[in-house]
Structure formats: C-alpha cells, structure tokens
Amino acid sequence: MVISKNNKIDLIQxxxxxxxxxxxxxxxxxxxxxxxxxxxxxxxxxxxxxxLHIGHLIPLITLKYFQKLGHKPIILLGGxxxxxxxxxxxxxxxxxxxxxxxxxxxxxxTLQLKYFLDFNCGYNSAIIVNNYDxxxxxxILSFLKKIGKYFYINQMMNxxxxxxxINKNIQGISFTEFSYxxxxxxxxxxxxxxxxxxxxxxxxxxWGHIVSGIDLVKKIYKKQVFGLTNKxxxxxxxxxxxxTENKTIWLDPLKTNPYNFFQFWLNxxxxxxxxxxxxxxSIEINTIKDLQKSNKNSIKKxxxxxxxAEYMTCLVHGxxxxxxxxxxxxxxFYKKLDDLSKNDFDMLLVNGINNVILENKNYSLQxxxxxxxxxxxxxxxxxxxxxxxxxxxNKKNSSILYYFTKKDKIFNHFTLLRRGKKxxxxxxxx
Length: 430
Fold this sequence. Notes:
The chain has 430 residues and is of the alpha/beta class. Helix content is 45%, strand content 13%.
C-alpha cells in the first residue's frame, strides 16, 4: 500500500502503482473523500454463464482493496440486464436466456463471490443485490417517463459500443440492446438513493455505461458520484479474456480444474508475468522488481510464473487444491513414470489432467489422438506422429500404424499420452 504525506493509505495511488486503474473520474476529489471517510461502492456482473472467469478477477480484487480499508463493497448481479445483454464490444447480439436459467446462474455465482469478499465483518460487510428486484416492479411507461427523458439518441449513437455495432454489423443493433445503457445507468441512481453508493467500478469496456450513470445521478439527485475502470486483462495475442473466446479459464473447478488453472498461470508469457504479479497479487512491488532483475541471469526462468501460479490457485481454489495441482505438475513434468505409485495415477485421473476412459480393446494411436482431442482429424494425427511430437509414457512414438498393447498400460490401467511438451492426456483402460 502507498502511504500519503499525512501517513494515510492512498488507495487510488496504490491501485495506479499496481497498474489496475484504466480511467477514473475526478480523481483528486475521489481520493480526498475516501481518505477522509468510508464509502459504499459497487460493481456489476451480468450472469451470462454459470461461473465467473478470470476476466472478473481484477474488479473483485479492486473491491477487496477497498473493503480492507473499511469501505463497503456491493455486488450487483444483473438478473434484469442479463436478460437484455450488454452490447459493449460484441460483434453480434447475445443469445437470450430464460429468467429461470439466469436465476440458476446467479445462485452459482453468488457462492463463488463469497470466496473473494467478506460478507460477515460488521459495518462494511459485502452485500449482493439483484437489479431484477427493482426493474421487475417498473412498467415501460413509468421507465420512459422517469428515465428515458434524460437520454438523447444523438449522444447514445456516439457511444463507442453502439457505433461499433452499427458500423461493423450488417444487422446493426436491436432496440433491446440499445436500451441497455439506460438500465445500467438507472442501477447507479437506484444504488445511490437506497444504498448511498457513490462509486461504480468495472472493466474499461464499461466506461460509457458508467459515465452515463454518473450523469443520470447528477441530473436526478444533483449529487456527484464517481466512476473507476480497471484495465482489461489480455492474452498473449492481445485479445481479452472472456467466456466467448476459446480456452476460457473459469473460476468453477468443475469447468476448469485446479491443475489446469495452475498450468494456465504457469505458462503466462514472460512479457506479461511481472505486470500480472502487480495486478493480481498483493506481493510487494519491490519484491516483484527484484525478481524481475534476478530472472535476467537465472536458469530458473519460471520462478515468476511459479509465484503467480501458486498465488492465484490458492486465492481461487484454496491451499489443498494448490498442493494437489503442484503435486500433479511435479509428477508429470519432473518425475520418472516409474517413480509414480498407483495412488499418484488415481489422483491424476480424478483431479488432474485431461483424461479419456477407454474400453479394454485394440485402439490405434491415430484413433486415440482423436478421442483424446490432441488431434482433430486422422490427417492431423498422422502429421503429429510423423513430426515426432507424440509420446507414449514419455517415450517418443513415430509409427503411424501403431496400436496400443498391454506393455503401454501402467498398473494395467494407465497410459500417459503427450503431444509436444505440455499437452497431456491420461488414458484409463477399464
């Protein structure tokens, strides 16, 4: 934490120092307010899946910073806005879901949120609200009369998320999604009135909605409120982490198990890892800088990645899951297979790497590569075998006509199949 001249923690500067803040409204005024008194703030999440993913972590971590200093975090789950769909930076309209499914997703997400914030710490205990509770009681005429009169079409058309859809999508944007901005803006006014919320945080793609909410509060209640956006987390190729992209890393262990979660962070590119240590962890900045310097001349090239992987896996899944992920990683990357016990293989099967359960019959290597999803076709499988990138129990196999035999089955049941250095599948023979 950064300490100000009057020996108080400067939270805004701390978040900037850790490269967490993207944009902020009236920074100096907000900074003065939160250093003098505790505030209520909120962040909204639309339930568009049955789990949060790593793209949601930075807003949650930001709320956690505020709560540690006595401020009260409020999570808004968009039971209503989830029915509409946020058009921000989406090339096409989201698939509409039923209220029953959205409520089911809200229940699961609620359980996940309780791992990140304290919901039983007194005056600044975190709370969860659902905007369906107030929108469900409002009819279209009262909404248009009460809220719609403050929004002007020409201004809304200039918002980036609207312009992108109109200019790049042949169908443009439906009125349903066009109205999303009004709904999120009203959320801020509702929370300001009934929960005394003066700050909204969100990803940088929410900036337009947040500013609209700030303006609406000012027009209706003549009050100043604030907005803060986090930097979006991007992958090695520069695209953002999101559940509509490939290989989403979910927070639900049933969707992304702790081993794969650990491996994701372990394989973060060197160009990103030190910034991620700043953003995602509470490790001292000087420690991160020292680590970066030492790694330039160190043979332990993954020490920063190891630190990040251990911290994040423990944060999301707990100590036991972290120890399991580390043991699995050690077993398949650093140990000889001869040193693994049957219990080690059982653990790999239940908690670890991708696996396929097979009938005890003859399979060709090409068939298994497709079944294990290490290859997407026979020609793809053949090319990988011929290029010497396939290993059976850590031994290279370059025979395109190979069939599995009893000698490939460790403890009569297990075969470790590998493509390249990092893509594994455990075969379990019944």
